[in-house]
Amino acid sequence: MDAHPPIVSQKDWEAAVAALRVKEKAATRARDALAAERRRLPKTRIEKEYALEGPQGPARLVDVFEGRRQLLLYSFMLGPNQKVGCDGCSLVIDQICHPAHLHARDVTFAIVSRAPIDVIEAYRKRMGWTLPWYSSFGTDLSHDMGTGPKEPKVGEYQDGESFALSALLRDGTAVYRTYVTTARGVEALGAVFSLLDLVPYGRQETWEDSPEGWPQTKPYEWWRRHDEYGKA
Question: Distance between CA atoms of 115 and 141, rounded to whole angstroms?
């Protein structure tokens, strides 16, 4: 039999929710304070001209903004020797909201990977995504963003791709980087993990602090590309 939360009266349940709500509001205010601090970060200019390839052909980094002043650029793990994208990055991109809402606030969302554009386009069509996705194949962009594979030392294997979310600002033709995050910082991109945090069993991963008997599996292992769930 599956484990379940304890059963209490309606009154006791309301009291427990009210007590938690106080902590939730404090966390919200702390998150607002972090966002305010993030808005006050300095910026650093990106001096290089990168020859990218997009769905419509050659593009510079400034072109990725599509005329808007702000850009959220997601570095997606899809390297030159791969044919399909990372399942975790795919989960992230599945959750991106309709871009019109970002466009209304002068923000473009775009993706970049080191794979050639034909590989990117094939995978984008498989996933059914319409977000703009650019290839940085043959450029230093991914390395300069800190997501390209590191150069191996003698006797070591080459490390693989990494992922990150960068915030960029355009002033005329000048492009600046204002923020970057990776690892769990990119959870802010989508609702899946936030929604799982609301249900009784949570994300059901072993790192979580859950009551004894709660269903749990190792992190990452349950993730699939959205057309692969239910397949062996």
Answer: 12
Q: Convert the pLDDT of each residue in 46-55 to its tens digit.
A: 999 999 999 8
Domain interval for residue 165: 44-189
Distance CA 210, CA 198 (A): 13
The answer to whether position 18 is within a domain reads no
Selection from 58, 64, 78 nearest residue 124 by Cα: 78
Q: Is 124 exposed, middle or buried (0-12, 13-18, 19+ CB in 10 A)?
A: buried
The reply to whether 138 and 225 lie within a common domain is no
Query: Are 162 and 90 found together in one domain?
Result: yes
- Name beta bridge partners: 111: 74, 133
Instruction: Give pLDDT tens digits for 31-43.
Output: 999 999 999 999 9
Among 157, 172, 189, which residue terminates a domain?
189
Helix (H, G, I), strand (E, B) or coil at 77: coil
